[in-house]
User: Which sequence fits this backbone?
């Protein structure tokens, strides 16, 4: 027992030492993502590390174990305590993060968000796809595949993810305006971050709506789950699944036709942009209309809502999927 | 009959609630009461049922386990690596490896609980973090998409083309689930060890004085859950056709809720396989029904919660209070 206590004390001392050593560094950039360990954020991590090395910025990613807003709050609190200069966040829930982000700002920390336009408490939010542009691109493709008529259903990551819902709004709006013969069933389903739930919900919806011809799935696991359901029901080529997903994960499904396609932006590029922006803002540079920033192109910042929105869409289809998958996405 | 109803109050309450929900859904939707939908329910609930019967054994023995779902993730991952290493394998070797790894993880829990007298919930919260932490640390969260073909090929055991051209099918997970359920039922109701588990869970001190080997009980209960979790993990990887390290994270509470709903007592000594299967099915049917009905997804959680409350209330109230005519019959 005594030996155990000594060992425990030794371990905690060395840990404490390690933490103080870390905190002594200056100019650190910590980026909290929705969830660690999924390919999307692994790619973002790669982008963060590469760009960090290139610009000489100490940037690192923090990935919570599940897509839980409370875990993100805790991670941000930790970063504040560590005394980082810049906090980057890809929020799970915009509202929940407001207080902790404001707290970070009060401490003089620069806050950059991604996939959460007009985030309260952020200095800047950047998007590689505009909500309208992204939603409409998917809606257009779905309408083409469905021949402009029939029923379709919409999945989002969660009913509280603002961006997924904005895409869904834009897509629905576009379809309503341009394809009056297409009909949305059942509002929208907050299942697309969970492959099992996406699969079972898709199976249920196919049963419930015999005329269902399409799924728009906004959320990384949604198209995969819906695609598997289509395979199970042997509806490949009759029901079309569209949405952004990880090409490596969906490669087989898109080749077999269970997923028809989608658009994405490159999470690795997003990771790089996080670091590039952090570097610029730490140096005190201002972002102006017409600036050409690496990874974003020419920007037109919306100063009032502190958004930087560009359209850098990458199509995922039978032709492009292999190359994208090779990038580790 | 009345005695049977009384001694299985939970099961009958659940059956009643399920029957009521099914009746409503059959009348209000075209697609609920169909072979295809029933099979879908079985196919998608299989993994949860396998987890549930495993957890049931631990609950009966008076323990609780939070770590089994992430344990299953560890098993999935390690099994996939071992299968890659030995160059393929097959269902037999796959299940054997997954089951054994699961037993190992379960035995580690039992070891902590028995040897150091740690309360099971504390011990398994610790191992939950250890298992998941180790998994994330060593894998860096990288998923495995390149699994052997035998594992990812869908195995359809029964298929039937419906009148409207859709296919109803029973797939391999259902067979595995049925075997696991049957094995657990035989084990806890028809073997001496199984009956000793009930006794041990109900009154550990009494069981010890009676000459039951306490340590063995812990290892058997947690080992059984470990084995079931390992098998469930492999089956999840089979139908998901990929191993994602955090795919099962968070599943433990869903399963725990379903098992307790099925009448297993958190204090030990009580619980049945039937109740536990019904508990999982009730939640699955509710979810399925909400989708089929086209209820607004914004209301899902509220309704699921309300139905759990109704089921629990029914099973806790004595049947005679609810059905006065039965009391009349007794007089």
Assistant:
């Amino acid at each position: 027992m005594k030996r155990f206590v000594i060992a425990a004390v030794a371990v905690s001392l060395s840990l404490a030492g390690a933490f103080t050593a870390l905190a002594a560094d200056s100019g650190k950039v910590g980026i909290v993502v929705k969830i660690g360990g999924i390919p999307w954020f692994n790619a973002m991590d790669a982008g963060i590390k590469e760009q960090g090395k290139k610009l000489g910025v100490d940037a690192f990613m923090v990935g919570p174990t599940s897509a839980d807003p409370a875990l993100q709050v805790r991670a941000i609190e930790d970063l504040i305590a560590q005394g980082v200069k810049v906090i980057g966040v890809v929020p799970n829930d915009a509202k929940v993060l407001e207080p902790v982000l404001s707290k970070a700002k009060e401490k003089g920390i620069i806050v950059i968000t991604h996939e959460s336009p007009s985030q309260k408490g952020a200095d800047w939010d950047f998007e590689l796809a505009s909500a309208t542009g992204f939603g409409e691109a998917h809606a257009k493709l779905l309408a083409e595949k469905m021949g402009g008529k029939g029923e379709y259903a919409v999945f989002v990551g969660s009913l509280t993810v603002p961006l997924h819902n904005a895409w869904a709004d834009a897509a629905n709006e576009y379809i309503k305006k341009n394809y009056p013969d297409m009909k949305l069933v059942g509002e929208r389903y907050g299942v697309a971050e969970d492959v099992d739930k996406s699969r079972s919900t898709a199976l249920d919806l196919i049963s419930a709506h015999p005329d269902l011809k399409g799924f728009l799935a906004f959320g990384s696991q949604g198209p995969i789950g819906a695609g598997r359901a289509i395979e199970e029901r042997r509806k490949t080529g009759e029901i079309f699944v569209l949405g952004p997903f990880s090409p490596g994960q969906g490669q087989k499904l898109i080749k077999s036709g269970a997923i028809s396609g989608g658009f994405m932006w490159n999470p690795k590029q997003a990771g790089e942009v996080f670091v590039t922006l952090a570097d610029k803002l730490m140096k005190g540079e201002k972002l102006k209309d017409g600036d050409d920033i690496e990874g974003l192109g020419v920007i037109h910042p919306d100063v009032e809502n502190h958004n930087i929105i560009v359209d850098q869409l990458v199509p995922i289809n039978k032709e492009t999927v292999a190359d994208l998958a090779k990038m580790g996405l | 009959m009345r005695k049977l109803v009384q001694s299985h109050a939970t099961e009958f309450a659940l059956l009643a609630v399920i029957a009521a929900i099914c009746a409503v859904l059959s009348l209000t939707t075209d697609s609920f009461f169909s072979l295809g939908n029933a099979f879908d329910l079985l196919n998608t609930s299989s993994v949860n049922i396998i987890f549930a019967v495993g957890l049931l054994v631990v609950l009966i023995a008076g323990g609780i386990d939070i770590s089994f779902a992430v344990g299953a993730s560890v098993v999935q991952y390690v099994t996939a690596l071992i299968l890659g290493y030995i160059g393929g394998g097959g269902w037999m070797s796959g299940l054997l490896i997954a089951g054994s790894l699961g037993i190992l993880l379960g035995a580690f829990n039992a070891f902590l609980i028995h040897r150091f007298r740690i309360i099971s919930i504390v011990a398994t919260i610790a191992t939950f973090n250890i298992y998941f932490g180790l998994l994330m640390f060593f894998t860096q969260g990288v998923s495995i998409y390149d699994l052997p073909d035998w594992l990812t090929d869908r195995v359809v055991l029964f298929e039937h083309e419906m009148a409207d051209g859709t296919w109803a099918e029973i797939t391999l997970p259902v067979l595995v689930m049925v075997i696991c359920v049957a094995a657990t039922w035989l084990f806890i109701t028809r073997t001496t060890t199984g009956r000793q588990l009930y006794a041990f869970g109900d009154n550990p001190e009494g069981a010890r004085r009676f000459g039951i080997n306490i340590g063995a009980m812990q290892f058997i209960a947690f080992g059984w859950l470990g084995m079931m979790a390992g098998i469930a993990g492999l089956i999840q990887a089979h139908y998901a056709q990929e191993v994602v390290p955090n795919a099962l994270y968070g599943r433990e509470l869903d399963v725990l809720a379903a098992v307790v709903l099925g009448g297993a007592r958190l204090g030990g000594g009580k619980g049945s396989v039937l109740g536990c299967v019904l508990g999982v099915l009730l939640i699955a049917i509710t979810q399925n029904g909400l989708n089929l009905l086209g209820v607004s997804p914004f209301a899902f959680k509220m309704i699921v919660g309300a139905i759990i409350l109704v089921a629990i209330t029914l099973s806790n109230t004595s049947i005679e209070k609810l059905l006065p005519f039965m009391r009349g019959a007794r007089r």
